[in-house]
Amino acid sequence: MLYGFLKVYVGFILKFFVKDLKISGMENIPADRAVMFASFHPNSFLDAILLDCIVDRPIWSLARGDAFKRAWVRDLLHKLCMMPIYRISEGKENLDKNDETFEKCSEVFRTKGQVLIFSEGLCTNQTQLLPLKKGTARLALQTWNAGIDVTVVPTALNYDQFTSTGKKIVLNFEAPIRKEDFADHQVSGANVLQFNQKLKESLERAVTRDFSFFTWRQGFYYLTFLVNFPLYLLLGAVIRPKTRGTVFFDSIYLAVLIFALPIYWLIVFAVLMFLF
Cα separation of 38 and 190, whole Å? Predict the structure, then answer.
């Protein structure tokens, strides 16, 4: 229930945060099969939020494991369809927990659900694809080897900038990678390399710096910009110094905007009522 409510509400707030959005390749997402979104990761947890709001069916997202330390946070993130994935930087002793997460992913796939994994294994505000880690290949191969049919959809969110509201975004879904594309589904070094090469080629096509497009969203953003500009200015002044040198500006900005924008509208409305 919480996930469904936030999907609708945050999708609405995004119209005041994103200036324009272009989506290509939605036809590459099967409507009635298990799907793994293997994604480019340039913008922290904003990437997952956008995909959750754009794709119709729920998506389970794999997120950095250190966010799941506290029990109440772990329960909340689970309600938001998030599962932990641990990196070696978070302690070797935690790496075995990834097996449990991958088993939960298999359960999602068995029910024809969807999972989002960031295939580079880390996030920077990059504009080019980073080297791919082994996690996506390992999850796909062991799922196929277990007899579960999952379609891998290479996915890339591209941002024209990372430092303010009013951004243009290009979201590309490339042609699916399927079980039938590989003769052997054993989790071996050679098969991981073969999978990653195919995924790399797809993601490189999906990563772009072409933002020369205009849709109705841009007109809507500018129509509301003057009303919201004082709040944008205030939030930017507060959040920018606190997130300088990190990848979290956009994500924290949107998180605050989700709460602040309705309150700001109420204040503007009350002032107008008082004046007129």
Answer: 19
